[in-house]
Amino acid sequence: MFHMVDEQGSAAWAGVCDLVYLDRRDDIAYYLDQASQKNSSILEIGCATGRITELLSDFGKEVHAVDPSSEMLSIAQRRVEKLSNPGQVSFSESPLPDLKLTSDRKFSLAIVPSSAFMSILSPEDQQRFLHNVRRYLSPGGKLIIEMKVPDPDVILGDPATLYHLMDINNDYDGGKLIFYHQRNYDDYQQIGDSKVVVEFVDSDGIVVQKVVHDLSFRYTFRWEMYHLLRICGFEILSLHGDFDGNAFDEESDSMIWVAGSRS
What ranges in the chain are assigned the alpha helix state H? Predict the structure, then answer.
């Protein structure tokens, strides 16, 4: 999946996103480790349904979570409310490029997980977003951005073909979700438009629900991102190919950028 950001606030898509990332754990230890290095508050941008928000809060972290979808934020808030002893958590509904919080507080760590940065479609909006993030960081604050490496199969794929994307188990009813997507990539603009079709299949193999969702994404290449961060006032601290800390190389399918705000 390219990203889960939804500017339209679809309740059906919020439900799908909540199930998609239910069992994802590969990034949690990394974010907890980064948060432990900064004894202050965390700004999570593109929190979706609160998968990371919930776990950071459960470890007593102070988190301010931002997402453009009110439906996703509602699920995220319910997640946190169920915790027995959560850390201090607050939420803001805001588009990513025009990042606006409910206060002018500063954060020592900002994270943009789950490829949410890929939902920002123009270089101008990307720069505006990064400048806004930097404005909310305290001196010496860090920014972590996860994003996908541009995939030749996506770039060169047939826009008329509906591709099978993945299956995930639905632990709630013993069935599964089957994902398909049809994508059209404009290599001049570096923007892809994807139609995602999700079939909810019950334990008997019967499709009981179908969700269709349109999303757009922008591929940003390695050195393009490097210079983008630098011109927006950040120093590159590290670039990894996964959350285990392995170096980024030609085999990597993800980029984990860690950047420090220049004073």
Answer: 11-20, 28-36, 51-58, 70-81, 123-136, 152-155, 222-231
Q: How confident is the model over 12-29, as a mean pLDDT?
A: 91
CATH 3.40.50.150 fits 11-150+220-261, yes or no: yes
Residue 111 to residue 44: CA distance in whole angstroms = 5
Tokens representing 218 are 């922008």
The pLDDT score that the predictor gives to residue 38 is 56
Tokens describing residue 141:
């604050």
State the DSSP string of 121-151. -SHHHHHHHHHHHHHHEEEEEEEEEEEEPPP
Distance from C-alpha of 109 to C-alpha of 112, rounded to nearest angstrom = 10
Supply φ then ψ for residue 97, to 5 degrees: -60, -40
Q: Do the bridges between strand 191-201 and strand 175-186 make them parallel or antiparallel, or are there none, so unpaired? A: antiparallel
Q: How far apart are CA 222 and CA 244, in angstroms?
A: 19
The CB density around residue 206, as the number of other CB atoms within 10 Å, is 9
Using a cut of 0.85, tell me whether the model's pTM lies above it. Answer: yes
> Per-residue pLDDT tens for 167-183?
999 887 889 999 999 99
What is the per-residue pLDDT across 190-206, written as a single tens digit (0 to 9) for each?
A: 999 999 999 999 999 99
Alpha-carbon gap, residue 95 to 134, rounded angstroms: 16
Higher pLDDT residue, 48 or 21?
Answer: 48
